[in-house]
Write a structure and sequence with these properties.
Length: 325
């Protein structure tokens, strides 16, 4: 028994995960889903180190030269030791340990690292949107009965019983944020969208993704750089939300860009039909990600020569799904 206790102490000291019943991690330990209904408990400081290393090892080229700005350094200017990315690390890990928001702790580590942790989506301006959005939306969610990714998304996007006034579109702005075409790239980072009060599909999507990540829900921007692969036909962006291991990724638009949509019915999106995804399909679709390992990129219609944003090819999924609508 003494040998077993000594072994457990060594495991914890080394930062190796220990399997425990769900929500049974000790203080200052970050829960990660494991097999069955158990979690692995990782010491907080080691979770911070692992998350920070993930971000630093996958920085886009324009961020690689701004490491100190993004992550801070001991004895930083005016006593600020943390940067924008470091703050995102701390806030996202803190949320996993908060029993008031149980969905956050149920996100697997690989999904968390790529689609909750990151401080940005593409080449939009870097700001502390995570801090602002979380401070506004988490108290709202704490007053609801939302417990699943879908229910949380409904609240944040304005489709829950709480209504649009409880959503990101009204809660962070003096007036309700609305859709305005032709706004990218002038207005598409989240703070600009909030300040101006409007955005086109890209800015609306970026803000919704950032809002969902700020409350612990995995999300990513997805879209086509050109309908039917013809630039003159225009482009479009929307949002994918991770629904869990069984459901995978659902998709929806931010409410200002599309009304009456749900995560569970692909056919209630104006673009999900045979007109936009014929058989055979010729419309490419890509989602953003942070991990730079596959060689696939997310093409930005407003910056077509820029290949610095890693992507996921979602063309086959949308061709198969939307051609049936």
């Amino acid at each position: 028994l003494q040998m077993a206790a000594a072994w457990l102490s060594l495991v914890l000291a080394a930062g190796l995960a220990t399997s425990r019943p769900l929500s049974a991690c000790p203080p200052e330990h970050v829960p990660w889903p494991s097999s069955g209904s158990t979690v692995e408990c990782q010491p907080y400081d080691l979770a911070v180190k692992e998350s920070t290393e993930f971000l630093k090892s996958n920085l886009p080229p324009w961020d690689a030269m701004n490491v100190v700005t993004l992550f801070g350094e001991p004895g930083g200017v005016d006593g600020l030791n943390d940067g924008i990315a470091a703050r995102a690390v701390n806030l996202s890990l803190d949320l996993r340990m908060d029993a008031n928001f149980p969905w956050a702790a149920s996100v697997p580590k690989d999904i968390f690292l790529d689609y909750v942790l990151p401080y940005a989506n593409m080449n939009e301006g870097r700001t502390d949107a995570r801090g602002l959005l979380g401070s506004v939306l988490l108290p709202i969610l704490n007053g609801t009965n939302a417990t699943t990714y879908e229910e949380v998304t409904e609240v944040v996007n304005g489709y829950s019983a709480e209504g649009v006034n409880a959503s990101v579109w009204a809660a962070v702005s003096k007036s309700k944020i609305y859709f305005k075409s032709g706004s990218t790239p002038l207005i598409y980072d989240p703070m600009s969208v909030i300040a101006f009060g409007y955005a086109s599909c890209t800015g609306v999507s970026v803000l919704l993704v950032d809002a969902l990540r700020a409350v612990g829900v995995p999300a990513r921007v997805v879209g086509t750089p050109a309908w039917h692969n013809v630039t003159e036909n225009g482009n479009h962006n929307w949002v994918e939300v991770w629904m869990g291991e069984k459901q995978g990724w659902g998709f929806i638009e931010g409410r200002p860009a599309g009304q009456g949509e749900t995560l569970t019915d692909p056919c209630n999106k104006w673009f999900c039909n045979k007109d936009h995804f014929p058989v055979p399909n010729n419309t490419p679709v890509f989602a953003t990600r942070f991990k730079n390992s596959t060689g696939v990129i997310y093409p930005m219609a407003w910056d077509p020569q820029n290949d610095g944003v890693p992507g996921v090819d979602r063309t086959a999924f949308y061709a198969a799904t939307c051609s049936k609508c």
